[in-house]
Recover the amino acids of this structure.
């Protein structure tokens, strides 16, 4: 299973940069991080997500500008995972609002414009509830809205460990379900659009399972 950025990054060559910018918690390209998995092991039978490994290397980064000083930082591993950090007002520890860890579960390439538009319409990835993986999920975006809602558009600037850069158009929707009274599991459905060297669009839709990560449960390496 690979995400779109892993499959097409070689199309977007830029000059190699000598130093990677540090983001929230000191994370950056070619660094690594560790996750404390003790809490997950206690509830392993209730999750669909596979137990995270303890150590990961960062192979690419993504930044999404939300406006009003809010940003989403994504740290893609060299495998099929990414760490997502929401911040407000900067990259200091005090600016970190939320940390989630996602693992790609499924993905499918899309070859036609019609199929692409069908895959990301509100009926497919914007309904209030859905069943996926044998579990029932509730929409996390606009949860009180009883009708279907359009997917959220996010423009992501991506850079990989070779300092190649490109942009990714995300059309996504987040769902969640209760594991117990305090824990949630998340399902992120994302339509991903990029353009190759010939300016032709390439489309992929992915399903990722995620969990919340506490600040104390994450350690940056390097």
């Amino acid at each position: 299973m690979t995400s779109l950025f892993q499959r097409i990054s070689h199309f977007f060559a830029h000059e190699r940069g000598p130093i990677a910018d540090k983001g929230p918690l000191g994370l950056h390209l070619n660094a690594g991080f560790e996750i404390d998995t003790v809490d997950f092991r206690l509830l392993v039978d209730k999750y669909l997500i596979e137990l995270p490994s303890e150590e990961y290397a960062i192979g690419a980064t993504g930044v999404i500008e939300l406006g009003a000083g809010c940003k989403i930082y994504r740290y893609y591993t060299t495998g099929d995972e990414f760490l997502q950090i929401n911040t407000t007002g900067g990259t200091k520890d005090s600016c970190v609002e939320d940390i989630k860890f996602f693992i790609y579960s499924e993905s499918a390439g899309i070859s036609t414009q019609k199929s692409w538009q069908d895959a990301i319409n509100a009926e497919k990835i914007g309904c209030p509830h859905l069943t996926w993986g044998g579990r029932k999920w509730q929409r996390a975006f606009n949860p009180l809205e009883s009708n279907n809602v359009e997917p959220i558009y996010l423009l992501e600037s991506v850079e990989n460990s070779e300092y190649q850069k490109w942009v990714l158009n995300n059309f996504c929707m987040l769902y969640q379900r209760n594991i117990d009274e305090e824990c949630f599991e998340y399902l992120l459905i994302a339509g991903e659009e990029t353009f190759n060297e010939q300016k032709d669009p390439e489309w992929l839709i992915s399903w990722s399972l995620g969990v919340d990560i506490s600040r104390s449960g994450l350690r940056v390496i390097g």
